[in-house]
Amino acid sequence: MPETDDLALLTDAARAAGEISRGYFQRAPKAWDKPGAAGPVTEADIAVNDMLEERLRAARPGYGWLSEESPDDAARLNAARAFVIDPLDGTRAFIEGDYAWAHALAVVDNGTVTAAAIYLPMTDKLYSAARGQGAHLNGARLAVSAADALDGATVLASRTNFEPWHWVEAQVPQVSRKFRSSLAYRMSLVGEGRFDAMLSLRPTWEWDVAAGSLVVEEAGGRVTDRRGAALRFNAAEPRVNGVVAAGPRVHNEITRRLV
């Protein structure tokens, strides 16, 4: 099956990425700000991206390529399948010496994620998923939490997502809010069932959430944009209108209560 073959390719590449990034972590890597207030980048991001692009494109020359650290090539829009890659998700955490950063790799087939790998090198946590075959953490099957209400839920999100103007009648849900720098890791933690939901209400780059969306879905959860619409990937403008990921009941309540 192509999903299985692609998943094996992604997991091997994710671990190889970890070998590179560990060599830079907590060793004062060169870092700079990207133009247009697009956030920080380090020499580790670039080294990982270069390896992944060479390795993955050589293995699947017919696939398109979309990565945070590569110039966008419109040729990807003509490819039925494409890689959607965040070489190092959570660069701020990486720079600060926090372990909560990840390599996030996905394959998209006509807009739908079919294989995904998210690897946290410093804790050796490998989240993986293939369409129709479940989600796993280091080989153990994952399932989202059984929470059935938003109030009282544990939610991974930045503080700004709980400003009153985001919520119907300014009724902010009463949740236990936590944070991780990497969006891919946040989604993986929801798939693992350690947290009940995650949300990001601003426009979100595809590479931040493509891999994580499949992990959550294959663990039994739902992932949509902030309006409840299905996510599609490898778009000409590679951003989605926010993202909400949770078990089905909590997800439905979040999207119902958002403005």
From TrEMBL:
Pfam family, one: Inositol_P
Entry keyword Protease: no
Metal-binding listed as a keyword: yes
Highest taxon listed in the record's lineage: Bacteria
CDD domains per record: CysQ
InterPro entries assigned to the protein according to its UniProt record, in alphabetical order: Inositol_monophosphatase-like, Inositol_monophosphatase_CS
Keywords: Magnesium, Metal-binding
Family: Belongs to the inositol monophosphatase superfamily.
Protein's recorded name: 3'(2'),5'-bisphosphate nucleotidase CysQ
Lineage: Bacteria, Pseudomonadati, Pseudomonadota, Alphaproteobacteria, Rhodobacterales
